[in-house]
């Protein structure tokens, strides 16, 4: 069941914030991305996630909301609101501040704030404090990492990827309690048509791997070997601002022992307009 929850969380992550863009100038207007996704397991709705991202003058700001629903609430109910901001350049990327607020099925609340200051370990505030139980992430393991939202912006921006391959990238993540990598590799280029009619055209099929490194019990890290493979259809769309491109996950899914768990894009606007399908 824990593996199932991890699969839901990782599949929902790209929908929380997946925005890309080249570095602007001080006089450049903001470019905006709005995306909504629905979560499914075996065809049953599990919840929804939406986000709004703004990139202006080499800086990004992301706001996201995740809410589970239906049968999944019997064992993992959550409402998560999060924000993140930082700086993004052609080959540079630096988070500045991440805040998240989580409410579970019993009404228990968890607040986490991560502050980034140069090469120093991440400065964290957690209320209530995390019970690490001897599996804490060491300060040196926190360096040069991203919060979960910034990690997705980093992946989609192409800052760390090879030219022409948005999937050739690894994002090092520290969420305040756990240290893991999100590793993407390109599988193939393809043409897909979404059942809900949102998009039809060219996509890049990518494989995502969730590699647990620290902050987990040794048993959980060992079970990482059997973690389900996660795939994604990714499409690129131009912005109204010259030189800026958005990379959107249209469908993210994994086959688990409980059936296919998926996040499917249901609404998309770039700079206030619904983008056209690709050729």
Task: Describe the 3D structure.
- The protein has helices at residues 2-16, 139-142, 148-157, 218-223, and strands spanning 31-41, 44-56, 59-68, 78-88, 93-104, 109-115, 123-127, 169-174, 179-193, 200-214, 230-238, 245-256, 259-270.
- With 279 residues, it is mainly beta.
- Mean pLDDT is 80; it is low at 15-27.
- β4 (78-88) and β5 form a beta hairpin.
- The longest helix is centred in the first third of the chain and has 15 residues, at 2-16.
- The protein starts with a helix and ends in a 9-residue tail after the last strand.
- It has four helices and 13 strands.
- It has one domain (2-268).
Q: Brief description of this entry?
A:
This protein has 279 residues and is mostly beta strands. It has helices at residues 2-16, 139-142, 148-157, 218-223; strands at residues 31-41, 44-56, 59-68, 78-88, 93-104, 109-115, 123-127, 169-174, 179-193, 200-214, 230-238, 245-256, 259-270.
Domain count, please report it: 1
The helical percent reads: 10-25%
Task: Give me the side-by-side strand order of the main sheet.
Answer: 7-6-5-4-3-2-1-13-12-11-10-9-8
The helix-and-strand class reads mainly beta
Unreliable residue runs: 15-27
Core attributes:
279 residues, 13-stranded antiparallel beta sheet, 13 strands
Write the layout of secondary structure elements.
Blueprint: H1 2-16, E1 31-41, E2 44-56, E3 59-68, E4 78-88, E5 93-104, E6 109-115, E7 123-127, H2 139-142, H3 148-157, E8 169-174, E9 179-193, E10 200-214, H4 218-223, E11 230-238, E12 245-256, E13 259-270
Antiparallel strand pairs: 1-2, 1-13, 2-3, 3-4, 4-5, 5-6, 6-7, 8-9, 9-10, 10-11, 11-12, 12-13
